[in-house]
Amino acid sequence: MAKLVNIAKDYSRTLGGRWIRLGEYSGEDFFKTILEPQYLQAKKENTKLVIELDGTTGYPSSFLDQSFGELARKYGKDSVKDTVEFKAQVFSWVADYIIREIWNKTV
Amino acid sequence: MISIIICVILATVSCLFLFLINRRRTHNGTIYLPKHCILETGNPYSVIRCLRKIMSRRTNDIILDCCIVESFPYETYITICAQAEKAKDLGKTVSLNFSSTTSLKVLRVLIKDHKTAETFHQHIVSSELLFIQRSKITPDIIGGLSKELKKIGIKDYYELNTLVTEILGNAIEHGIRGRNINWWMYHTKVKGNLKMVFVDMGTGIISSYRKAGIGILSSGSNLLLRALKGAAGSSTKEPNRGRGLPQMDFMIRNNFISNFILITNNVTLRYNNGEYATSSHPNFVGTYYSWTVNKENFFRWQNWLISQKTIAEP
Fold first, then answer.
1. Which of B128, B165, B187, B207 has the fewest beta carbons under 10 Å from its own?
2. Does the distance separating the beta carbons of B241 and A60 come in below 8 Å?
3. Does B179 touch chain A (CB under 8 A)?
């Protein structure tokens, strides 16, 4: 059974910048406290990690890079693309942005 | 012969008198603010010169004399507040002097807007203030902005929320980090528009790039335009960084925001009639952004969003 993370409910409706030192709910903090542990758990259980994007007040690009981008840099974009799926009505363009502008450009 | 001697003596005394007055003016802490203390329109030279004097005067007691000031918009006011805060970190105190009738009228306008305007050092955190000053990004900033946008009929302007977070992140990371100063933000409603102003008196965008060894041979204007297009990369030199300014450029060019002005280091950048225009001036050590948002901007963004969904799901 897929693991589910709803960012607005499980983390915060309002997201911050890139680094923890910039303030609350940063991409770095989200990566460390939620995304990486959940990703590793999903890999261990050989299941999908579904990220629900709707419900927040927006996704700063630096937040996305320091969370989802960092995941691809650390564990490889192919592995991450195989495991992580996005669910979004309102923020479908954010899912496209993560895949197209962050993951596909990750070396 | 005697009359010539008297004339020479009088001329010498007059010159000495004028010299002493001038010397007093330039060596004490009094700085005379210009008649029109406006950063955004015309030539910001006179305001920038006063900002520089706050830092360069050798005395610790700076008085900003407003005796000839007739116009003093709030966005200039918070910029001077931000500079006064930076000066305070050097042990200086900055005060305002509104002694003339005209300047008292200006003061009354300022006080009406902002009840704690007597000096620049009373950085009292209160919900009554029109401006916010912080050293970090906190969720209530976007929450407060969303409330203001709702008042002019705009709801869920996600792109604007993220732009604000990116700007503040840049201000902290490249401007105020390691210094005992804040970024400053101000917004006000004007005839269906929300005007937004952000100021940090950190390093400035152009200086940040040059300190990183980027664009040393480019002019400030050219470097700034390249940074907005994403062509200058990031001053951190990391390939996945430097996304904030291109996002801003995208929003400006698509008219998701209007009346854009950026003042940083020796360049002022404006976006008018589909084009960027730059002008040069003395170094404004910091970064100043200003723009307006209205329903038309918001609808443009919504239409763009719908078009993106249509492309993704043909």
1. B128
2. no
3. no
pLDDT on residue B199 = 96
Q: 3-state SS string over chain B? A: CHHHHHHHHHHHHHHHHHHHHHHHHHHCCEEECCCECCCCCCCCHHHHHHHHHHHHCCCCEEEEECCCCCECCHHHHHHHHHHHHHHHHCCCEEEEECCCHHHHHHHHHHHHHCCCCCECCCCCCCCCCCEEEECCECHHHHHHHHHHHHHCCCCCCHHHHHHHHHHHHHHHHHHHCCCCCCEEEEEEEECCEEEEEEEECCCCHHHHHHHCCCCCCCCHHHHHHHHHCCCCCCCCCCCCCCCHHHHHHHHHHCCCCEEEEEEEEEEEEEEECCEEEEEEEEEEEEEEEEEEECHHHHHHHHHHHHHHHHHHCC
pLDDT tens digit sequence for B37-82? 889 876 789 999 999 999 999 899 888 888 888 888 888 988 998 9
Residue B117 has pLDDT above 70, yes or no: no
- pLDDT > 70? residue B118: no
Chain A residues with CB under 8 Å of B156 CB are 57
